[in-house]
Amino acid sequence: MGTTRIIFASAAALGMLATSALADDMTGMITRIDRLNGTISIQQTQKGTVGTSAGSAGALQEYKAKDAAMLDAVHAGDRVTYSATDSNGTGTLTKLQKQK
Q1: pTM
Q2: How many whole angstroms separate alpha carbon 80 and alpha carbon 95?
Q3: What would the pLDDT profile of 14-53 be if each residue is shown by its tens digit?
Q4: 39-45 and 26-34 as β-strands: parallel, antiparallel, unpaired?
Q5: What is the distance between the alpha carbons of residues 8 and 34, in angstroms, rounded to a whole number?
């Protein structure tokens, strides 16, 4: 019984960490926009971590836009700052701002 509680507590903690990681502002480059379906693909820019060079390409993620109008101000190739949440395994873009 005690082992089960530890496993569930660990799983809950990991889930909260994963969700909060998505909520932080991230940077990346837009690779594709599908305005008909309201989705956008962003190549995340890695931050300077051990073993990687600053600005190297990270994971390519596809997000559903919370509001389709947020996709009107950006184009493929634009560098952006963005925030996203994960709901039911689908990433949802909550903030999207073109970098200057």
Answers
A1: 0.66
A2: 10
A3: 555 444 444 578 999 999 999 999 999 999 987 665 555 5
A4: antiparallel
A5: 38
